[in-house]
Each structure stands twice: as C-alpha cells, then as structure tokens.
Amino acid sequence: MMKPINNLKPVVGKLACLACPDDYAGTVLPKVVALLHKHIPQLDLQISCAPTNQLKTQLDQGLLDMVIATRSPSSEEGYFLESSKGVWVKSAEFNYQSAMTLPVAIFQRDCKFHQAAIEGLLKAERPFNIVACCGSLSALTALVKANLAVGVMAEVSNTQELVTVTDSTLPPLPVIDIVLLHANHAHNPIKRELVKLIAADYALTL
C-alpha cells in the first residue's frame, strides 16, 4: 500500500543560519554540521559561504546565527575548534625551483597569510610576482592546479591533494585559530550553551 502523500513531507525543524569561509567548507564545516544535527535532530540548517570579515559583519547585524571563522589576532573571540598552520602548496606537476621568481596565488589583503607571505618574501629578497589575490579557496586552488602559481593557505584547507613545498628559503607562515562564533541576538535558535558543547565535542573529532 502506498503511503499517504502527507507522510512523505519532510519534517520542518528549527531554522538556523550557519556560515563559513569556503576555506573551511571541505573540512571544518561537515564536522560542525554533523554535531549540530546530533544535538538538534530536527534542524532546518541554512548554510552560506563568504569571506570571514563579511560574515562577522552579518553576524553582528543579526543576519546569521553562527559563523565558523578565523580568530582575529590578539583576540579571544569565539569558541575554539582547531588550529592550522599556513603552508606553501603546489601541484604535483609544478617544477618548483628555489632560485625561481616565485609566482604566487594568495588570499586577499584581509587574510593573515597574505601579509605574512608578502612581507616574508620581501624581507628574504626573494623575487616573486603575484599571479592573483583570490577571494575564494576554489579560485586559488584552480590556479595552483593549473601550474600557474604556488599557493598559500591553511593546511586544513588543502583538500585537493596539493603538495606542500618544503623549502627552507620560503618565509614561515603563521598558525591560525579556527573558532565558532555565536550571534548574541534574542531570536538566535542556537543557545550559547549548545555552541560550547559543540566546540567541546569537535575536539574529539581531531
């Protein structure tokens, strides 16, 4: 016997808006989503991606409930999820030479790795040219995979099997903290206590 059509309708649960930079969409985001559904079985989750600075603004405006973000320097904001070091990456086919003029694909100027990479190369007097400043991980990765550049990203963001460049003449890159930010507005369906619990549970996935 066929089930009545009404029984096939999805159960509409609690609506929540989560966002993250696409840097973390392939690694951090799935873990957070799994934990949210673990604690809220009927959850209508809306996800968007944008640069961290834009998402923090939307969070402050009450347009988002939670944001996975890079913690600001000298700040204790958010609930800690994990740390990740910056790495230089290339495609497996890219013929990297330590004496070459380095073609670089980096994130835009508000990214912590941007400043560290550029200032480090200048200080080391390493010849380089910027192929592009990218607003998304997918764009940066595409340039690296096409052998157009060596990229700079967080190690946790490398989901495309790019090769880490191990050259001691390249400047070291900083370690960043990834956190879960919670919007402090009255209509936020996700309570702060739950965000604390999710951050604690996240540590068990590492």
- Succession of helices and strands: EHEHEEEHEHEEEH
The chain-level mean pLDDT equals 92
The count of helical stretches stands at 5
Low-confidence stretches: 1-11
Strand runs, count: 9
Which shape, going by the Cα principal axes?
Answer: elongated
Instruction: Return Rg in Å.
Output: 20 Å
Q: Summarize the amount of helix as a percent range.
A: 25-40%
Main β-sheet description: 9 strands, mixed
Q: In angstroms, what separates the terminal alpha carbons? A: 46 Å
- Quickly give the structural class: alpha/beta
How large a portion of the residues is in β-strands, by DSSP E?
25-35%
Question: How does this structure look, described?
Answer:
With 206 residues, the protein is α/β, with parallel strands linked by helices. The protein is 26% helix and 29% strand. It has 5 helices and 9 strands; from the N terminus they run E-H-E-H-E-E-E-H-E-H-E-E-E-H. Strands 1, 2, 3, 4, 5, 6, 7, 8 and 9 form a 9-stranded mixed sheet that branches. Strand 5, helix 3 (112-123) and strand 6 form a beta-alpha-beta unit. It is elongated, with a radius of gyration of 20 Å.
Key descriptive features of the protein:
single chain, 206 residues, alpha/beta, 29% strand
